[in-house]
């Protein structure tokens, strides 16, 4: 069952880095219903980094900042070295987020906001100005 339709895009394989089980479950469900492929959902920075440096194909990482064993900032640094974009999904965006990520989606957010945020990042990466932004999303120019 698809909740929200989407066009075939470039950001298809997503890594979810979230240590709150209910948020992780909801995120997986929303992404799957929207026809994204969740390559993995992990709750630790070390597991995420192992996937990033491994052979796993990842198009976008959705990462919380505060994780059980470290920081989403470490995940974003590893992703940057591999050219993988990151969207921080957090209630407390770090000061250095603009240097490491495409944007920040502030918690709490709804399913529709998450999907619109991913679409906005995809548009931005294709050189377009995103048509819609959820109120909790902040995109960065640099990253």
Task: Describe the secondary-structure layout.
Blueprint: E1 13-17, H1 21-33, E2 37-42, H2 45-53, E3 60-63, E4 66-67, E5 70-71, H3 72-82, E6 86-90, H4 97-100, E7 103-106, H5 111-125, E8 137-139
Parallel strand pairs: 1-2, 1-3, 3-6, 6-7
Antiparallel strand pairs: 4-5, 7-8
Helix pairs in contact: 2-3
Describe the protein's architecture and organization.
- With about 140 residues, this protein is α/β, with parallel strands linked by helices.
- It has one domain: Rossmann fold.
- The chain contains five helices and eight strands, in the order βαβαβββαβαβαβ.
- The strands form two sheets. The protein has a six-stranded mixed β-sheet with strand order 2-1-3-6-7-8, sandwiched between helices. A two-stranded antiparallel sheet has the order 4-5.
- α4 links the parallel β6 and β7.
- α2 packs parallel to α3.
- The protein is globular.
- The protein starts with 12 loop residues before the first strand and ends with a strand.
């Amino acid at each position: 069952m698809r909740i929200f339709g989407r066009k075939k895009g470039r950001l298809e394989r997503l890594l979810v880095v979230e240590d709150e089980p209910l948020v992780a479950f909801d995120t997986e469900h929303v992404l799957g219903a929207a026809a994204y492929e969740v390559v993995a959902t992990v709750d630790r920075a070390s597991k995420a980094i192992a996937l990033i440096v491994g052979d796993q194909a990842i198009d976008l990482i959705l990462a919380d900042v505060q994780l059980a064993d470290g920081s989403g900032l470490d995940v974003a640094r590893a992703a940057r070295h591999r050219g993988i974009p990151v969207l921080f999904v957090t209630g407390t965006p770090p000061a250095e987020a603009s240097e490491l990520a495409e944007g920040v989606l502030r918690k709490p957010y709804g399913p529709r906001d998450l999907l619109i945020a991913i679409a906005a990042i995809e548009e931005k990466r294709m050189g377009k100005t995103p048509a819609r932004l959820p109120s909790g999303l902040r995109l960065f120019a640099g990253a």
